[in-house]
Amino acid sequence: MTAPATVLTHRELWDAWSRLWNGDFAIADTILARSMRVNIPQYGMPDPTTLHDGPSVASWIAAFRSSFDDDARITGELGPFIVGDYAIGRWVFEGTWQGGRPASATVPAGTRVTFRGVDILRFEDGRIAEYWLSDDQLDLYAQLGVLGDAATTSQGADPAAELRERLAQLSADAGRTLLLKQVLDAAAEATENAELRAASGQESFLALGVNSLAAVALGELLGELTGIPLTSTTVFDQPTPRALADHLWTRLTTAADGASVSLTAALERLETAAAELTGDAADGNLRAELVTRLGALLDRLTPVTERATADKPVEETSAEELLAYLDTRLRPLDDAR
């Protein structure tokens, strides 16, 4: 006769949860519900819908621990406080970072880190049915040199300036290769998928699992690294990591009159600032000035032959001139959306 399964108490489940985070992955399928629900922060985290049972949660925890030494530990600092089917407690994590994730870390391997967080567990039928996490990722990332300001303050260097300096010393092919590696590393960090670092760069972002949320994180990571404002739209405008690397190469190496910011970057900043204009009188005057000055700039950028055709009366314009003018205004059918 089979002995009845032992039902763990809420406190025993809490202690087992701590052991799981400290590397005892074999117990995951025993203590976690088959349809567990996970509630975690968006930035730097996987899609919570992919974490729904023992194996998936254990894999996530193992991926986190893989960047730290085997002695890295989570230790209870306050609690747990158990009320009904819920338990809450504060913990502290201490470990030595070995490299890997986050890909944008700038500190050397061997850096010791400490950060804290709060876990909330809900129990059901002798298992952990739901999990809430609130941790100080900002503190952890600051210690790893991920945050631009923190890295600049601690190391006295500007990552974007350093990158431009490195690219200035490389050929176009070598520079694009370096940027491709940076893009793949950032994509791996944004999606919490280390395998992306080994991608060829020819795959589409969608095929690599870069969804809209990951694209936002990817844009932020690359923006901090390059000093170029990037949005999720910018990311998806480039269909593959290699195309995005080529785009960054152009943006980082093309400047006007030695300026540190490319014309394209300056235009994007202007578009962002213009979108924030309100309808008050001051902004109205500024808007009118912008229209005038941008109109003058457009005239300077428009080819002379096109301006001559546009200004000439239709009856004095030849068929060749009209067709040439239309070619500058109409897109080919293949490009029509």
TrEMBL record:
Domain Carrier: from-to ranges: 174-252
GO biological process entries: antibiotic biosynthetic process; polyketide metabolic process
GO MF annotation: an example: phosphopantetheine binding
TM helices/strands, residue ranges: none
InterPro entries: ACP-like_sf, Cyclase_SnoaL-like, NTF2-like_dom_sf, PKS_PP-bd, PP-bd_ACP, Ppantetheine_attach_site
Keywords: Phosphopantetheine, Phosphoprotein
Keyword field contains Phosphoprotein: yes
Top-level taxon of origin: Bacteria
Protein name: Carrier domain-containing protein
Species the sequence originates in: Streptomyces luteogriseus
